[in-house]
Amino acid sequence: MASGQLSRAEALASSGCRHACHVMLYSDTKTQLFGRIPIKHIILMQMRFDGLLGFPGGLVNPSKETLEAGLSRELSEELGVAIPVSIEDHVDSCYAPASSSSSSPHLITHFYVKKMEEEQIREVERAAASTATDHGQEVLGMVRVPLYTTKGGGGLACFLSHSFIGNARSQLVDSLLRLNLVAPKELHKALTHSLKIQTQTAQDLQAALELTEAKRKHT
């Protein structure tokens, strides 16, 4: 078992820990971008209140509800629609990165993957923007993961260069490989380009910081 990973039983038996459940909802699609770039799959993530990308879900209390019941409750609040999640959808449990569990007690994350029909995914998107309790507050909006690469290098590489909460990026990458949603060679290429984008982003941020500093000194 990989470092930090736990079996479901070990996770539930851990004392003094908080638990969070999140799910990757996805579907197949035959649609094409600009009528020529196959999209192939729809994967939903969300822009969180803290500006980070993550999967739908949240904190649950195993002493009062099952992990799946807690996750379904969180999904109703964030997506505005009831989505049943079962033990069969469970992928892994692990300790969250230190940056995500800096406060005591430690946080254990449980990750699920659920395949849906394309129309069901579209209904989730509609409900999330119109009836979800958390829309505009804890959740700033749902986003689709671009699994393609455009001629100019945009798409998946740019998406992966954004900031993710906790281990959400590694959960996404692992799922893409495990479910064969993106070929390993293409994913490696996207990640390599993503690193270059982050370098350019750091340079842009430094330039913006210097501009702000100059303005601040003159006010």
Automatic annotation (TrEMBL):
Its UniProt entry gives the catalysed reaction(s) as: dIDP + H2O = dIMP + phosphate + H(+); a 5'-end (N(7)-methyl 5'-triphosphoguanosine)-ribonucleoside in mRNA + H2O = N(7)-methyl-GDP + a 5'-end phospho-ribonucleoside in mRNA + 2 H(+); IDP + H2O = IMP + phosphate + H(+)
Identify the domain of life: Eukaryota
Q: Where in the cell is it found?
A: Nucleus, Nucleolus; Nucleus, Nucleoplasm
RNA-binding keyword on record: yes
Q: What region holds the Nudix hydrolase domain?
A: 16-174
Concerning InterPro entries, the annotation shows: NUDIX_hydrolase-like_dom_sf (IPR015797), NUDIX_hydrolase_dom (IPR000086), NudT16 (IPR054754)
Q: Which GO terms describe its biological process?
A: mRNA catabolic process; nucleotide metabolic process; sno(s)RNA catabolic process
Q: Does the keyword Ribosomal protein apply?
A: no
A GO term, aspect molecular function: snoRNA binding
Cofactor(s) needed for function: Co(2+)
Keyword list (alphabetical) reads:
Nucleotide metabolism, Nucleus, RNA-binding
Which family is annotated? Belongs to the Nudix hydrolase family. NUDT16 subfamily.
What PANTHER family does this protein map onto?
NUDIX T16 FAMILY MEMBER, U8 SNORNA-DECAPPING ENZYME
Q: Write down what this protein is called.
A: U8 snoRNA-decapping enzyme
State the organism named in the record. Answer: Anabas testudineus (Climbing perch)
